[in-house]
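Case study 2.
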Amino acid sequence: MSAHDTGLRADRVSRAAGGRLILDGVTLAPPPGSTVGLIGPNGSGKSTLLRVLAGVLPPEGGLVTLDGEPLAATGRRTVAQRVAVVDQHAATQVELSVLDVVRLGRIPHRRAWSAPGPEDDAAVRRALERTGLTDRAGQSWHTLSGGERQRVQIARALAQEPRELLLDEPTNHLDIQHQLELLSLVSSLPLTCVVALHDLNLAATFCDLITVMDGGRVVAAGTPDEVITEELIADVYRVRSVVTREGPRGRPSVRFLPAAVRSAPLDGV
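Prediction:
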């Protein structure tokens, strides 16, 4: 198997909804072990691309492959063992502990109706340790903050022992501390991670590569230094900005400029 065929890949993928192309010939080939950020305005196709990569939505054109084989022809159990997904909003009305939620990640590795075995327990324990949740294993899901719930969802995904991890805007509704902690964790994982983000500075700080989407198409792809430019931000987001390179790694830092406000005469003046 060549490096080109390794891992999860989308080749010229398209999908429509309501008569409109949501994805238009999108190609994405994350290098194994890298963290790839998906950025772009609302409605640019980021979430749809993640669902297509996960096999939740089939592409209407193009192909998604896993190690060179069509994802659609790969068994669902195999895909679930290889690819883990962390959605924006995970919710349940069932009374579950942190341990219960993390154990759900072992379902693809067990036979139907079988009890967890030693390998399952070990994988869950490692996931809890990696995410700093060992002391919270017995805590109720419903008592957790938003940041804690996202961390539990990542632990559940790690318990799957995947090689690819897809995250859809995992920092939404988190404060700055939890955003930094969560993305520090994600970027340190020995996995191929594809993460949709709105914050350009977070993407520039934590991602090895960035893919920019607009109108269902990939309009730029490369390292943060190559992609995050004032020109691209103006073209894609229609706003003005100042981009500087800071710190020992020279990652781009974005400062947005206020839009020009047109003054209008007051009524009667």
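The longest strand covers residues 8-17.
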